[in-house]
Design brief:
There is one protein chain. With 87 residues, the protein is of the alpha+beta class. Helix content is 20%, strand content 23%. The protein has helices at 16-23, 52-60; strands at 2-7, 30-34, 39-44, 67-69. Strands 2-3-1-4 form a four-stranded antiparallel sheet, with no helix packed on it. It is globular. The chain starts with a strand and ends in an 18-residue tail after the last strand.
């Protein structure tokens, strides 16, 4: 199982939590919302079915800018995001 923590400023405003629930139909993951701290905790059983881009889009679709907390699991960093260039 892969875990991901997202800080979503503005989550407790208006009906953002309801919209988040509707958007979660797109992902195959369990989630818990801590509205007081505007955090969303994801538990992902099969990380091969979810990408970091999908999680990001989920929040952007409801007008929120997600900020990923801690280290992003390698399983979610597949080809659809930009990698840092090294010399």
């Amino acid at each position: 199982m892969t875990e991901l923590l997202v800080y979503a400023p503005g989550l407790r405003a208006g009906d953002k939590q309801m919209h988040l629930g509707h958007q979660m139909d797109m992902l195959s993951a369990r989630y818990k919302v801590d509205a007081a701290h505007e955090m969303v905790y994801f538990e992902i059983e099969d990380p091969e079915k979810i990408t970091l881009r999908q999680v990001n889009d989920l929040f952007e679709n409801i007008g929120l800018q997600p900020r990923f907390v801690g280290q992003i699991p390698d399983e979610l960093k597949r080809g659809d995001i930009t990698d840092r260039l090294t010399k």
